[in-house]
Here is the input.
Amino acid sequence: MDDLRELYQEVILEHVKHPRNKRTPADANRHAHGHNPICGDAVEVHLKINGQGVIEDVAFEGKGCAISVASASLMTEELMGKTEAQAKALFETFQEMCTKDDAKVSDGVDEDALERMRVLAGVRDFPMRVKCATLAWHTMSAAMARKDQVTTEAEGSGV
Here is the structure.
């Protein structure tokens, strides 16, 4: 178990040092800003979704703790080329993984994606870190719903 935890930490640190898709795409057609006022994490998620509902590009900008940045980076890798429905299923599964020991996997989530997202599932043991890990995902969901902002402290924000 310690070897697995060490591997997960290495993956997280790699995403912090070299975040994937940390940029602003010129042709994004949806975006949202997410903020966690408790710790100061802030993220902007940019999506380019085509007429068939496929995410052609996804990127993020912002600042935050290692968990927040790694999660945003991992998220962008997982969402590229997915449909909005697949993105929603991934989000629901990730939320479950971060909050429950017996997480349910949503229909349509492939095993490879599940394994890659599992590196952040350990946050469920640290409740204050769940918001850090899920902020980018909630922000992506807000962008898909054409909402400009989401905060971890808003009533009904789902964060």
In short: Helices lie at 2-17, 66-79, 84-99, 111-117, 127-144.
